[in-house]
Amino acid sequence: MFRRLSGMKKYLLILLDAALVTIGYFLTELFLVLENHTPPSNFHQVLANIYIAVVVYVLILHGFRTYNFLLRFSGLREYSIVLGACIISGGIMCVAKPWIPFFLSEGVHLMAAVLTGIMAVSMRVVCRVILGGIAKRKGEEVETLRTLIIGAGEGGNLVIKDVAAKPDSRFRVVGLIDDNPAKQGCSISGIRVLGTRNDISKACKDYRVEMIILAIPSLHGKEKKEILELCRTTGCRIKVLPGMNDLILTKPLTQNLREVEISDLLSRDPVKLDNTLIGSMLRDKTVMVTGGGGSIGSELCRQIARFGPKLLIVLDIYENNAYDLENELHFNYPDLAVQTVIASVRDRARLEQVFERFRPDAVFHAAAHKHVPLMEDNPGEAIKNNVFGTLNAAECAEKYGVKKFILISTDKAVNPTNVMGASKRICELIVQAISKDSKTEFALVRFGNVLGSNGSVIPLFKRQIANGGPITVTHKEITRYFMTIPEAAQLVLQAAGNANGGEIFVLDMGKAVKIYDLAENLIRLSGLTPGKDIEIKVTGLRPGEKLYEELLLAEEGLKSTKDEKIYIARPVDISRSQLKEDLKNLSKVIAEDDEQAIKESIRAIVPTYRIDGEEENNEAQAAEI
Q1: Residues 298 and 405 reside in one and the same domain
Q2: Which residues contact 415 (CB under 8 A, 6 or more apart)?
Q3: Which domain holds residue 586?
Q4: Nearest to 151 by CA among 193, 190, 181, 185
Q5: 244 vs 92: CA distance, rounded Å
Q6: What is the CATH number of the domain that holds 483?
Q7: In whole angstroms, what is the distance from residue 248 CA to residue 378 CA?
Q8: I need a labelling partner for 254 at 20 to 30 A (CA). Which of 92, 318, 485, 572 fits?
Q9: Which among 260, 289, 311 is the end of a domain?
Q10: At which of 225, 260, 295 does a domain end?
């Protein structure tokens, strides 16, 4: 039925165009007679030319596929094609002069072509308006939101056009905001620029705004945070137009709009990658990522895939995440060779098989147990997986000629107060010790928390908000460093490209963020009020938990690199033979399953490890008193 209706509309449009060609020729002839006092052409002569012109115009308009355009969604591009097709038709009529009996003058044909084109476009505009009105009346009544758009540039223009193209859109744009002085008072498609960011609050009150859309995809860092803070004070709902890399082009632009996220409020500028440097490390190489299905590991795989490795090996013991990532990579990079390996870094024999078979050129070691409270209760498992898993991977890398081995470390390894942090510090020592006399370039990258990663507070807070609260925070003054998962992965690749062996790369984490403030912001982003809709409950520091994290040991020092977000710390002198001996003793203690003895053995290797974080907890209690 719908096909029949669509076909009827097409034939009706052809008949209308034929009528417009006829009217165009008669009006042109009438104009020439009245304006220039020329004698009228023979009626039969005009009629003969019109018959031929109708056929030519319809064929050309059909050839340009104008009858396939959806009138309701037509725009400037479609109207330009219709006008151009009519002018081309007039030109063809002029060229065909020798074969047309009773030929009218070229002037008549050209004037009739322009007039017909204008009428054809006007007719289509009228049809679009009528069809849009019918659709709106027939469709369900949609509640529109009075909308203010931040950004009168390309992004704002695209949003306005997308809204205008859909009569049933739930957005009703009432104004624009832009800081550019030259744009003040100007309009885009009839929507006026109402002022700068300082006028957001006033504009929202004056125009009863319900929704704000931030339509500046290129905006990042501190400036983005400032504008979003101004928007939040209005009490309006806020949507953000994502960057071009995140747009789903198969969906209408307004369907790409997303909610404001915590990452938008971190005031961090985007990473500028040295693609040449990273490309030389990854392109046409075999690259392995251990823990490839995890939050950091999977993002590393996504970033690595962009540089066209010969083979990407995703190694993980948890098959579900690895399977999902493999499907994602095959979809986004159909030409990429991906090999998913289900294996544990604790299994030395299995790792030997994998390294011998694939002979990777570069290894990013992200496999680790990271949950602080769980590792505190299961210290033996933390050591088996983190310490001996790293030892297995590093020794296999050296044995099978891997060119570059990068350990993903954490700020919790610095002056650790928990088993997880202490285990990662031992991983750092292993990599530094092996790098001293190895042909493989070993290096480590140390950074803080990543938003949205497995074990991050953000997913926990979101679940608590969804359940109506309360949000639980262990201490009101507890602070952490944060960056986004893509930023962390990109900086790891950037650091790896600069690695020559033995370096400790420390990422610039920006300013530390209070977890309590993070909880309040997340509640507000959910459209709720902290303390009123959702309670924030302080539960007290957990065993091994610090009030604040550090990124550097006192003896390491710090020097800058050419990348402003990456620093290099000075490695400490480590005896590989002594470390091996200490690890043998640690292995024996683990077999006895004595938690206190395990922690004491850890401290024998990491003197800065404070068992159960006793000093930190004492400091916290003193601060509260």
Answers
A1: yes
A2: 550, 553, 608, 610
A3: 278-456+478-511+546-619
A4: 193
A5: 43
A6: 3.40.50.720
A7: 43
A8: 485
A9: 260
A10: 260
Query: Residue 617 has what DSSP assignment?
Result: H
Mean pLDDT of all residues in 88-98: 84
> What residues contact 409, with CB distance under 8 A and at least 6 apart?
424, 427, 428, 444, 445, 446, 447
Cβ atoms of residues 201 and 177 within 8 Å: no
Range scoring the smallest mean pLDDT among 252-266, 315-329, 399-413, 567-581: 252-266
Q: How many domains does the chain have?
A: 3
What pLDDT is attached to residue 293? 92
What's the chain's length in residues? 625
Q: How confident is the model at residue 612 (pLDDT cuts 50, 70, 90)?
A: low
C-beta separation of 409 from 371 below 8 A = no
For residues 207 and 158, what is the distance between their CA atoms, to the nearest angstrom?
Answer: 22
Catalytic residues: 412
pLDDT at 272 over 70: no
Per-residue pLDDT tens digits for 100-130: 666 677 778 888 888 888 998 888 888 877 7
Supply the DSSP string of 156-177, one letter for each residue: HHHHHHHHHT-TT-SEEEEEEE
Q: Radius of gyration over alpha carbons of the chain, in Å?
A: 34
Closest CA to 354 of 389, 314, 318: 314
Better pLDDT: 21 or 555: 21
For the purposes of burial, counting CB atoms within 10 Å of the CB of 550, is it exposed (0-12), middle (13-18) or buried (19 or more)?
middle
In terms of Cα–Cα distance, which of 158, 151, 145 is closest to 180?
151
Structure tokens at 30: 């009438």
pLDDT at 252: 58
User: What pLDDT does 618 receive?
Assistant: 39
pLDDT band at residue 406 using 50, 70 and 90 as cut-offs: very high
pTM confidence score: 0.64
